[in-house]
What does this fold into?
Amino acid sequence: MKIQKVFAALLAGTAAFATPAAAQPKTEITFARFFGACEADYGNSQDVAHARGECGVMTTLVNLFNATNKDNILVKPQIIEWGPYYQQLNARLSAHDIPAVAVMHSAQLGDYVRYVEPLDDMLKEAGIDAADFTPNARNAVTVGGKIYAMPWDTHSWLWHFNVGLFKKAGLVDAQGQPIIPTTVDEMIAQSKQMKERTGKNYIDIATSTPGDFANSSRSFYSWLYDQGGTIFPSGYEKADFKSPEVLAAIRPFELLAKAGTITRGLDSGGGLSTFLNGEAAIYLSGTWRIDDFLAAQAKPDSPLHEGYTTRVFPSLFKTQTVWTDNHTWVLPKGGTNPAQHKAALVFIKFLWDHNADWARGGGHLPARQSLMAGYAKLPLRNFIVELTNYGKALPHEARRQFGFQSMIGEEIANVINTGKTAEQAADAMQERSVGLLRGR
It folds into this structure.
């Protein structure tokens, strides 16, 4: 009996040293992102091929990584609303509660470059080939000649069309496609014809809350760039909102408002439902809405069933140039220990390998040049695939870009909703820009 007890004790001791790798503590990394929460639909999904929308694809990718990675890594998402995301990130950085991986718009990278790791060598370590970045994506993540983020997409501003309403208004070509205006006067004439023949608004835009202000600012930037204009003609220490190009980029909103052909006072939910319910002809939004509207078009009872299409935000002035931004992944400084750092690189390599899934389901253009030909074959993407060649953004030297986006959007919302003139809006932008740049 004594021998048996000793043998049993030896076996128990051996087992203590032979714990399987799967039972070892996982390397956990935190993952700060927006894109919404959709646990009810995708909480357990690993089927990336059938995931739709930004939230669906992002949630499914994290699920798939956690279930299949062979490095014993657990990614713990920290989902934050889009509006307050950067304020919360600032607070976390100050409190040293730093995520291992975080999403960041390239427009914000200039303000955060001192807080994130340069990635040139780390991308090579992870097996990510920066030579595959599209030119737009490379420019978006490069500051002072160094790469500070892994690009995830290029997203831009579109017109989404209810083709059925355009047909009723007599505004389609011989192929039954919407006629795209080429001047401001043509657009206003179209808007009046739409209202007269269908009773519906021409333009549907959300403008009532701070989270909606980006809608009008992205439109403003597109028409400003279309003229070759800028709000920083003399360096980035002072903005100029008194140029003819700035006024011309604001004026279309004033004219649409005076014609009564643009929606007023809608929040994002109201704007979306207005378009989906067939109450407006054109919805101003981005690349991320394409799959949503294709899904609506497929439903027999949808007002979009008669036809939906999309085009790049139209040129009404000189040249086709449109606002773009990029989602990117950054590694904030101080957010990991050595094991977590290695795990973060494994995770962003996984994301890089699934960039096509993001482009398909999220709607945005891929960050990888090698994926562009395949992307162009997806529904309606042939109309927008060239965006990476002529899309434009403010350079990283222009700081407080989201502050300017919000301020410009709010003032244009006032033009639409309260009757401010373009000149009054420009005056307010000029005055408010001083405070924004003082707060750099």
About this structure: Residues 1-22 have pLDDT under 50 and may be disordered. Residues 401-418 form the longest helix (18 residues). The chain has 19 helices and 14 strands.
